[in-house]
Design a protein that fits this description.
heterodimer; A: MetI-like fold; B: four-stranded antiparallel β-sheet; 10 strands
């Protein structure tokens, strides 16, 4: 309850500063919150917002699944193949570290300026994030639990099912949670570079046409989408990880599993 | 509730578990020319139903000894025999942790699965061994009850106190009934009060089914309170340098133990044996 009140206070401060900045610099540079809200309402009503948001969301969600599922599954498959891991390591690091945005022209060349090139871009970003965080999770599963289980007669299948999988799930979730805003952001970047639809395109078009209110609508809509996405992931995580001590992220970070 | 079995004298004739000339050397590493000899020429024998405590200075390889008996670690030399059959020697190529569920191991940490409720944790070994039937469930329930954990079956480990988690870890091993149980300072991290309670609980649980127990500790009082026999280890490289029979009658009253006749003398003898092992410059 107190948190909710404090959040509203912070929102008020942000809106007030925004309004102040708008007055100071002029509405042609920074449209006021009310003007932005009006533009948002207009875009909601005439379906323009949903038209663009749907495109961005599709790119983000499809890319998230195409990159995220192999990113979460592959570490489980190569977990015990130390040699393969050692061989692949530099390539994976390079793939993780390379700026995927630089691949955008290539993806556009391959897949055109439609949805496919954005999906490819998102997938390439999400895959590496989820992959590395999941792999780190698998490596950090408590070896003492495994040793104890071997002593009381647990075979590899039971150890995988009862210890490694549940031990790694929190990391898989962390990976997905970190990757989710990146998926949205990457889809938008793809659209900014070349597209004829999507929130990124809408923002770019608004800037070109000198419609700052419309531009702000795009940014606000993106922030809203990320918040909703996070809430969905939160819900799934709570359902799947009911065994964990409740508490904030900081508290959870201190809990050793 | 289960009834304690009558006080049978352990069979002196044939040792159930025998360790002969055991040695463990940890490999030489950078900056350490020779390998580290943790255990060398260690021999001991335990008869069926005997509760043996092993006292030794810290760093004397007590955990390493149990790891090798449990086969989570490999000896450099020596043999380990169970019921006269060699289960481990220098020629053994693969480790068989727990030797086909014949050797249980209660470690310093409780090693309960944080994502499983107390009851699921306790039944896990039985499930792993495909022995989870109604009789096994009933026996586990009786053990849970005797350990004072009734009513907490649906709790996750993080919702339990340290003492309760220790009890759960103990019951998990007792529930699948291995003939030999190794214990590595299982009550080390607890406060004195809880420790005493757990000593009493352990002895009560043990009296139900006289398992063969090797219990490692650096606490002399604990070694006397629990054991039929106290073995004293030397400093590394560890071997058994002394042995004391504990003639205190069972069932033992843990709280009144210190006042029991003979306790003080036994304590002093063990203390002196250990003191001779203390590092020369400390």
């Amino acid at each position: 309850m107190r948190i909710a009140v404090q959040r509203i206070v912070i929102l008020a401060v942000i809106l007030a500063s925004w309004q102040g900045a708008s007055l100071w610099f002029g509405a042609q540079w920074i449209p006021a919150p009310v003007a932005t809200a009006r533009a948002l309402w207009l875009q909601v009503q005439n379906g323009e917002l949903w038209y663009h948001a749907r495109f961005t969301l599709s790119a983000a969600v499809i890319g998230f699944l195409i990159g995220g599922i192999p990113g979460a599954v592959l570490p489980f498959l190569i977990r015990r193949l130390a040699t393969l891991r050692a061989i692949l390591d530099p390539y994976l690091i390079a793939g993780y570290g390379a700026p995927k945005v630089a691949l955008t022209p290539l993806f556009i060349l391959w897949f055109g300026i439609g949805l496919e090139s954005k999906v490819a871009l998102v997938a390439s970003v999400v895959f590496f994030l989820v992959f590395f965080i999941t792999l780190a999770g698998l490596d950090s599963v408590d070896q003492k639990l495994i040793a104890a289980a071997r002593v009381f007669g647990a075979g590899p299948a039971l150890i995988a099912r009862e210890i490694i999988w549940p031990g790694a799930i929190p990391y898989v979730f962390t990976g997905l949670r970190v990757a989710a805003p990146y998926a949205i952001g990457t889809a938008v970047v793809g659209e900014l570079i070349s597209s004829n639809r999507g929130l990124g395109y809408s923002i770019q078009a608004a800037a070109t046409n000198f419609e700052p209110a419309k531009l702000f609508v795009g940014v606000v809509a993106l922030a809203g989408i990320v918040l909703i996405l996070n809430a969905v992931l939160d819900f799934c995580e709570k359902r799947l990880l009911s065994w964990r001590p409740t508490g904030g992220i900081a508290e959870r970070a201190q809990t050793s599993f | 509730m289960l009834k304690p079995v009558s006080d049978i004298a352990p069979d002196r004739a044939e040792p159930l578990l025998e360790v002969r000339d055991l040695a463990r050397t940890f490999g030489a590493r950078d900056g350490r020319a020779a390998g580290l000899n943790v255990i060398e020429g260690l021999s001991l024998a335990v008869t069926e139903g005997e509760f043996v405590t092993v006292a030794g200075p810290s760093g004397s390889g007590k955990s390493t000894l149990l790891n090798m008996i449990a086969q989570t670690d490999r000896p450099t030399a020596g043999t380990i025999r169970l019921r006269g059959k060699t289960i481990m020697d220098a020629s053994t190529s693969t480790l068989t942790p727990g030797w086909h569920c014949q050797i249980g191991y209660v470690t310093q940490e409780d090693n309960l699965l944080p994502w499983r409720r107390l009851e699921e944790n306790i039944l896990l070994p039985l499930r792993a061994q495909r022995r989870l039937d109604d009789a096994a469930r009933a026996r586990a329930a009786a053990l849970i009850d005797t350990a004072g954990l009734a009513g907490f079956e649906r709790f996750y480990p993080h919702e339990l106190s340290g003492g309760m988690r220790k009890r759960a870890s103990l019951v998990r091993t007792l529930a699948y009934d291995p003939p030999v149980i190794l214990m590595d300072e299982p009550f080390g991290a607890l406060d004195a009060q809880t420790r005493t309670e757990l000593h009493a609980d352990l002895l009560r649980l043990w009296s139900l089914r006289r398992k063969t127990i090797i219990f490692v500790t650096h606490d002399i009082t604990e070694a006397i309170a629990l054991g039929d026999r106290v073995l004293v280890l030397s400093r590394a490289p560890a071997r058994v340098i002394d042995e004391f029979r504990v003639d205190l009658p069972r069932p033992r009253d843990i709280d009144g133990l210190i006042a029991a006749p003979g306790f003080a003398r036994l304590y002093e003898s063990i203390r002196q044996a250990l003191a001779r092992q203390a590092p020369r410059r400390a």
